[in-house]
Amino acid sequence: MSKATPNHFIRSIVSNDLANGKHDYVYTRFPPEPNGYLHLGHAKSICLNFGLAADLEGRCNLRFDDTNPEKESAEYMDSIRHSVAWLGFDWDELCYASDYFDELYKFAIELIHKGLAYVDDLDAEQMREYRGTLTEPGKDSPNRNRPIEQNLDLFERMRAGEFEEGELVLRARIDMASPNITMRDPILYRIRYAHHYRAGDEWCIYPMYDFTHCISDALEGITHSLCTLEFQDNRALYDWILENITISKNHIGEKNKPMPRQIEFGRSNLEYTLASKRKLIQLVSDGHVNGWDDPRLTTLVGLKRRGYTPASIRNFCAEIGVTKKDSVIEISVLENAIRQDLEANAKRVFGVLDPLKVTITNYPENEFETFTVKNHPKDQTMGTREIPFGREIYIEREDFMRDPVEDFYRLAPGREVRIRYGYAITCHDVIEDANGNVSELLCTYDPQTAKGKTPDGRKIRGIIHWVSAAHAVDAEVRLYDRLFNHPNPGALDDFTSALNPDSLQVCKTAKLEPSLQEADPEDRFQLERVGYFCFDSVDHSTETMVLNRTVSLRDSWAKPGIKK
RNA sequence: UGGGGUGUGGCCAAGUGGUUAAGGCACCGGAUUUUGAUUCCGGCAUUCGAAGGUUCGAAUCCUUCCACCCCAGCCA
Predict the structure, then answer these.
(1) Phi, psi for residue A466 in degrees, rounded to 5
(2) A511 phi and psi, to 5 degrees?
């Protein structure tokens, strides 16, 4: 399972930097903005940053990029912290960009002193006009050559709260004609009279991402600053800022070592899912799903509630790789990752989703026996358990066919199957209800066939799962399917039009073997022949059992085209 | 028609001038099986976006072309 550490272009760069002495160690960071819940896309970045540091005996920080008070909250921050820890990573330092507000402010003043930043009073619309377009250069702002003293004064007064929101901004003085629009005198600070979830009301000016991120990296001694592809153009600004401020080498931990280097990698998208925070928020607030931890969502909290293990997600991330191209991953890759984990580690139990009663007419009434069965077919260390058996049992309705199709080798009138770990039974009569639906089967059992034996050597192909009717416990089982019917719902004008109406199927009729009542609520298990399940972390209790299906078992019989 | 990127099988992805182009997922066969699961074995790109060129030899070098993605928030 644990694969050789994946070698990708970023790892090569870092290894080289270490080998040739450019850096003495690797120091990375995972820098989320606390404005939403983490999803699978973040998991890729987390595994990359923390994984690289761990493999190369370096360090990795968790840093909240919290420079936009209007969108951020402590709730999001807490959830992100928990998700990173749940995924299995420890950060070396827990950092907040907001802790650097004082330093950031000083660096801004330094830029002003050097004539490399100025206060501008263009409003947002003018700013856009002056910026030019993709094909035309921008124009200098009338304020571009404002005297340094005046800039200093204005900037201090911005901080002091003497201006309205939007009235003034601080801009870097770079090049309005740059073909790279990011370099056309980007805004460094804006005025916002907003309460910051950590800094409170201490500031009314907030630094922008480009100004904050590179300085935060440098202050923390980050050596390699990994981010996604859309920041490639911003790299020029990242480097420009660090080149133009005086940031002590002592600050960055390694004396006389180079500044952090930004390296971009491609995002990975999962088919049939959404990753955009804005759209995720809409799904939650419009009630299309039941919260951020809805098991149909690929948020980390959703996957956790669905029954995914941290290891399966880490393996998934290792499997999809790291390259410079955006990718679209098929869900089968994710499903494969969790199946691999659960196949090896989940104990097996019996449960019937859609019960059909079977009476074994030649088995005495009010008499029971117990079978000792394996908790795992291959892993003996997982031990055994006892399951009760009696005259009346439930089998899966799906495992009986009145008029069996070709290739169906389960139960049918006159046919014999084995009830797993028990006897061979043969169906003799079918009882119907008033509507003509099958309501019960009358079968006989062959006492010679206990424990998998067939004394006459006859071959019994069909093996089905079952539970004792007298001992079964009721449960609600939630079956999940993809949330969207479209492979790329985010590309649609209205992604809600692609919502899958059958993404959640609640099955209230399930009958489970009694041992499940004593199971640990954290347990993940396989309902044999059905799928992998876990108890729902919110709605499950020993009184009312609620199970989530994490993923079905592979079913090479239920191929499209073959009708059950 | 500015700048920055990317193009290897259905989806990912190794490969950085020299055997028949790794591997995973998916798919298709077949074996084993008290889960139609698992496991196992076999199949699955004469071809690397296209066209030219360099070379004894190219997915890897050069040229041109094509396609797709990102950038004109006082978001990150």
Answers:
(1) -165, 165
(2) -125, 125
**Series of mean pLDDT values for 10-residue runs along chain A (564 residues):** 68 96 95 98 98 97 98 98 98 98 98 98 98 97 98 98 98 98 98 98 98 97 97 98 86 76 98 94 95 98 98 98 97 98 98 98 97 97 97 98 94 97 98 96 96 87 97 98 96 94 98 95 96 97 96 84 42
Instruction: Measure the CA–CA gap between A238 and A210, rounded to whole angstroms.
Output: 6
What are A534's strand-pairing partners? A524, A548
Domain map (residue ranges) of chain A: 9-265, 277-347+475-563, 351-464
Which nucleotide lies nearest residue A69, CA to C1'?
B75
* A448 CB and strand B closer than 7 A: no
Which window residues (331-360, chain A) lie with Cβ within 7 Å of strand B?
332-333, 335-336, 339-340, 343, 348
Is A114 noted as a catalytic residue in this protein? no
Write down which residues 67-126 in A have CB closer than 7 A to strand B: 67-68, 71, 122-124
Six-digit token pair at A31? Answer: 């820098």
Exactly one of A33, A72, A220, A335 is catalytic; name it: A33
Domains A9-265 and A351-464 share a fold: no
Domain A9-265 has CATH 3.30.230.10: no
ipTM over 0.85: yes
Beta bridge partners of A171: A118, A187
A182 nearest nt, CA–C1': B71
Nucleotides of B under 7 A from a protein CB: 1-8, 10-16, 23-26, 28, 34-39, 69-76
Terminal C-alpha separation, chain A: 34
Cα A296 from Cα A346, distance rounded (Å):
21
pTM value is 0.96
Q: Which nucleotide is nearest to A344 (CA to C1')?
A: B38
Tell me which of 2.40.240.10, 3.20.20.60, 3.10.450.50, 3.90.320.10 is the CATH number of domain A277-347+475-563.
2.40.240.10
What topology is assigned to A351-464 in CATH?
Ribosomal Protein L25; Chain P (2.40.240)
